[in-house]
Amino acid sequence: MSYGGGYGGGGYGGGGGGGYGGGYGGGGGGGYGGGGGYGGGGGGFGGGGDRMSNLGAGLQNIDWAHQQLTKFEKNFYVQDPRVTSRSDKEIADFRAAHKMTIQGQNVPRPITTFEEAGFPDYVLSEIRALGFPSPTAIQCQAWPMALSGRDLVAVAETGSGKTISFALPAMVHINAQPLLAPGDGPIVLILAPTRELAVQIQAECTKFGKSSRIRNTAVYGGAPKGQQIRDLQRGVEICVATPGRLIDMLETGKTNLRRVTYLVMDEADRMLDMGFEPQIRKIVNQIRPDRQTLLFSATWPKEVQRLAMDFLHDFIQVNVGSLDLSANHNVAQHVEVCTEYDKRDKLLKHLEKISQENAKVIIFVGTKRVADDLTKFLRMDGWPALAIHGDKQQQERDWVLAEFKSGRSPIMLATDVASRGLGTYHTTLPFRIAVSPIWVGPGSSHED
């Protein structure tokens, strides 16, 4: 963790389990070339054997009614004159064009440009430096809502720009609060279901926190605790965490949530699917009740609605697109039906077809065994493929992602551990291989 050049919880080291090197390779493989090696991996999914049933048992419930709470600022939104001047019809047409619906009282109007959001210059300069052309639909509506200090529910498809929707208002929120004192915990807490998503969120926070020296760390299982503990004890304004590892840190006194005034639950539906609801409730009880809470989800089932009703106060809501799980509509999807016997031949034909385009490919499969078997098959045929799944140590998984991102290994096989919340780094062609009896690809969002 350092100022300026990017903070965060490094420390992916440690943990044995297999590794890469030697092994398969060779051969041409349709223009990609072979090389490298592939090996097994150890570890366990979800944070090194999280004791799900006992997590949080050591945390004491806080009686907030008898706590003296220091006041804090959370409303920073000043509506831009250009937004004020638009007619109600223009606003309605904008929302309709973006398949946007809102719920709640006194919902701020959407903005259409970065400048209209009213971000301070230090935020706008980072946006310009990164070359973003314009806000996404969810950002246009969520930024005014979040900057106004209101509790917020945002339901939008995966890949719609939700991370920036809560990360930029978080920077503004932090810079309006008193500086951290020794022993203080974070000001912003972002809960995420998987370590991959936690690392991805941390990377975005690092980009936008550099100019104002905002420190962050990512706290997740499957990686050594040492660096994460050191980051927390030095003090970070933003903590991105998976529920299991965060509770471990809280129970052992490595951090506290007394300073948290901005809480984000990202991929809330996924966290509930993974059984984290009891842990989420334990964590939220450690945070002052007058905090600002933002809940982001790809779907809006009854379980997520109940969570929102329990944790958010007088919240406003924006839905972009369908309330059911869906993929990004900007992605073309095709389905091919074939026999089990023909799957691999069809996959190879597609790989050969696109290999001359320097494309990156993700192949989603149903099980860890299939991921390893298919990776072995491809590498023996000369294709530079690597696999990522829950039985790989975090150090190994990070290495695979780095190889994929750099293009050194442009084919990555993944199980559902990477199906949501994983940056795809300009992937040209994702596949999904159905378990049986059909092969579904490229880009299908069908479940295994």
**What's the total number of strands?**
12
Query: What structural class results from the helix and strand content?
Result: alpha/beta
Radius of gyration: 22 Å
SSE pattern, N- to C-terminal: HHEHHEHEHEHEHEHHEHEHEHEHEE
Distance between the termini: 39 Å
Helix fraction, binned, reads 25-40%
Uncertain stretches: 2-50, 435-448
**Mean pLDDT, all residues:** 81
Strand percentage lies at 5-15%
Tally of alpha and pi helices: 14
Strands of the biggest beta sheet: in what spatial order? 1-8-2-7-6-3-5-4
Main sheet record: 8 strands, mixed
Indicate the overall shape: globular
Domain Helicase C-terminal: 346-448
Domain Helicase ATP-binding: 143-318
Enzyme class: hydrolase
Protein name: RNA helicase
What does this 3D model show about the protein?
- With 448 residues, the chain is α/β, with parallel strands linked by helices.
- The model is unreliable at 2-50 and 435-448 (pLDDT under 50).
- The chain has an eight-stranded mixed beta sheet with strand order 1-8-2-7-6-3-5-4, sandwiched between helices.
- The chain has helices spanning 81-84, 88-97, 121-130, 137-147, 162-175, 195-209, 225-234, 243-251, 268-273, 277-284, 302-311, 343-354, 368-380, 394-406; strands spanning 100-103, 152-156, 188-191, 216-219, 238-241, 262-265, 292-297, 316-320, 361-364, 385-388, 411-414, 429-432.
- Helix 4 runs parallel beside helix 5 (162-175), helix 5 (162-175) crosses helix 6 (195-209) and helix 8 (243-251) packs across helix 10 (277-284).
- 32% of the residues lie in helices and 12% in strands.
- The protein is built from 14 helices and twelve strands.
